[in-house]
């Protein structure tokens, strides 16, 4: 054992309140300083949004406990990695097949290029890859993290937050999301789509949802239901088909809808890609779009413009979302953000021949 007064070796257990523990945690520092864990993270990351009194208390607790994470050491040295990670929990096939992801990446990379910050694209396709990336974050090898296509049970944004790493989400995991985010008005998208179809005289309006463990998909379904109610149409759960934001998912859902409700005359698909799958099934069944069935998607992607007939779609400002995410993350990294980003951008209905 080191003699009294000698500094403890890095990584050795530390005594806290008379008991032996592992490496000191943010929670232990917060408890010793009498502040919240978020305050400790902000102090470590040099945020100006902390009082001098809190800084002094946290600094004293860090010194007493021997808590000096790698990121804190870098911050004290005035150095950064000048790199951020963009995390997409999807396969390569889906990443490059869906215009949504490419537009987000384009927006993010444009904003980061102006700041001379490197973008590290990370695909997470399995639990093992998720665990490996968690270890990567723990090593503090990036200055911040951007998350795209987050599901309700994704633990990585919370891990980044616990590590004191700035993080921004594309979308939200729930209405009570605590991590900074840039989202679009998904409820408004669903309501506008149904209102448009109802205004065209459609009375049996169905929807093809995204995966309901994603908040965006739940919000679009909520918007659909509000639109049905506003148009004074009868609610019918048989007109709701679950899918997964893929073209094949749209095909399966459209087949299920036609089996259950052959008199359907309008469809709101929660993405353009699913609408493309639905269009193929409608043609196979002998139904004409828009004469027999009117069809709407979401995103206003190149897929919508290239379909035959061209697809009516609810436009999301996807590239702008990517730019706003990157801008918010850079502000978190530099400590110039007055508050965590909570941005919801408007959507816009773009009418084409499919309705």
UniProtKB/TrEMBL annotation:
Residues 24-78 form the HTH lacI-type domain. Residues 1-20 are annotated as: Disordered. It comes from the Bacteria. GO terms for molecular function: DNA-binding transcription factor activity; transcription cis-regulatory region binding. PROSITE patterns: HTH_LACI_1, HTH_LACI_2. The keyword Nucleotide-binding does not apply. InterPro entries: HTH_LacI (IPR000843), LacI/GalR-like_sensor (IPR046335), Lambda_DNA-bd_dom_sf (IPR010982), Peripla_BP_I (IPR028082). Keywords: DNA-binding, Transcription, Transcription regulation. The keyword Transmembrane does not apply. PANTHER family: HTH-TYPE TRANSCRIPTIONAL REGULATOR GALS, LACI-RELATED TRANSCRIPTIONAL REPRESSOR. This is LacI family transcriptional regulator. The lineage of its organism: Bacteria, Bacillati, Actinomycetota, Actinomycetes, Kitasatosporales.
């Amino acid at each position: 054992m080191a003699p009294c007064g000698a500094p403890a070796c890095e990584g050795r257990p530390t005594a806290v309140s008379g008991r032996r523990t592992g490496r000191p945690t943010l929670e232990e520092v917060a408890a010793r300083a009498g502040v919240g864990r978020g305050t400790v993270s902000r102090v470590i990351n040099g945020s100006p949004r902390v009082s001098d009194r809190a800084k002094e208390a946290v600094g004293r607790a860090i010194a007493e406990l021997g808590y000096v994470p790698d990121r804190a050491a870098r911050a004290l040295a005035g150095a950064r990695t000048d790199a951020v990670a963009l995390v997409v929990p999807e396969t390569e096939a889906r990443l490059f097949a869906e215009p949504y992801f490419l537009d987000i990446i384009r927006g993010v990379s444009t904003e980061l290029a102006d700041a001379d910050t490197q973008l590290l694209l990370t695909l997470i396709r399995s639990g093992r890859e998720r665990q490996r990336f968690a270890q990567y974050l723990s090593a503090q090898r990036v200055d911040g993290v951007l998350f795209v296509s987050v599901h309700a049970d994704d633990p990585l944004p919370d891990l980044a937050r616990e590590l004191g790493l700035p993080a921004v989400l594309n979308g939200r995991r729930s209405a009570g999301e605590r991590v900074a985010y840039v989202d679009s008005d998904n409820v408004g998208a669903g309501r506008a789509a149904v209102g448009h179809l109802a205004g065209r005289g459609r009375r049996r309006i169905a929807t093809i949802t995204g995966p309901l463990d994603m908040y965006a998909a739940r919000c679009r379904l909520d918007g659909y239901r509000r639109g049905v109610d506003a148009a004074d149409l009868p609610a019918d759960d048989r007109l709701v088909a679950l899918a997964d934001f893929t073209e094949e998912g749209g095909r399966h859902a459209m087949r299920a809808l036609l089996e259950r409700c052959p008199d359907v005359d309008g469809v709101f698909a929660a993405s353009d890609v699913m609408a493309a799958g639905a269009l193929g099934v409608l043609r196979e069944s002998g139904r004409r779009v828009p004469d027999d069935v009117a069809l709407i998607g979401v995103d206003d992607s190149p897929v919508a413009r290239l379909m035959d007939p061209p697809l009516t779609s609810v436009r999301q400002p996807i590239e702008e979302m990517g730019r706003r995410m990157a801008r918010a993350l850079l502000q978190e990294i530099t400590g110039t953000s007055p508050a965590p980003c909570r941005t919801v951008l408007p959507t816009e209905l773009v009418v084409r021949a499919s309705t």
